[in-house]
């Protein structure tokens, strides 16, 4: 079986979104990208654009990334119930 990832490069860029007081804030974990938006849709659009601009013209392997990585977004939600 051929190894499609011989250098251990990641195929995903992980990002985390949390709700601030007025805006949603998105931050990438592997690369230095932070952005915000008033809505989730705006925040995700801003995140995609910021990541693309950050990586434009760069050698992705220098960031530990495989070609054409996907964006994996996790969102922090407020507690749904006090179960303690």
General description of the model:
This protein is an alpha+beta fold. It has a single domain, classed as Double Stranded RNA Binding Domain (2-Layer Sandwich). Helices cover 19% and strands 36% of the residues. The protein has a four-stranded mixed beta sheet, covered by helices on one side. β2 and β3 form a beta hairpin.
Order of helices and strands: EEEHE
Average residue pLDDT: 89
Q: How far do the termini sit from each other?
A: 49 Å
Helix content: 10-25%
Number of helices: 1
Would you state the CATH class?
Answer: Alpha Beta
Shape: globular
Question: What key attributes describe this structure?
Answer:
1 helix, Double Stranded RNA Binding Domain, 19% helix, 84 residues, alpha+beta
List the helices and strands and how they pair.
Elements: E1 10-19, E2 24-28, E3 34-37, H1 40-55, E4 65-75
Parallel strand pairs: 1-4
Antiparallel strand pairs: 1-2, 2-3
What's the short story on this structure?
With 84 residues, the chain is of the alpha+beta class. It has 1 helix and 4 strands, in the order βββαβ. It has a single domain, classed as Double Stranded RNA Binding Domain, CATH 3.30.160.
């Amino acid at each position: 079986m051929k190894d499609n990832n011989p250098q251990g490069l990641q195929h995903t860029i992980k990002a985390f979104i949390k709700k601030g007081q007025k805006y949603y804030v998105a931050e990438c974990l592997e690369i230095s990208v932070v952005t915000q938006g008033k809505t989730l849709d705006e925040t995700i659009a801003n995140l995609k654009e910021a990541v693309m601009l950050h990586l434009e013209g760069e050698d992705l392997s220098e960031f530990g990334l495989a070609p054409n990585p996907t964006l994996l977004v996790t969102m922090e939600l407020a507690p749904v119930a006090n179960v303690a």
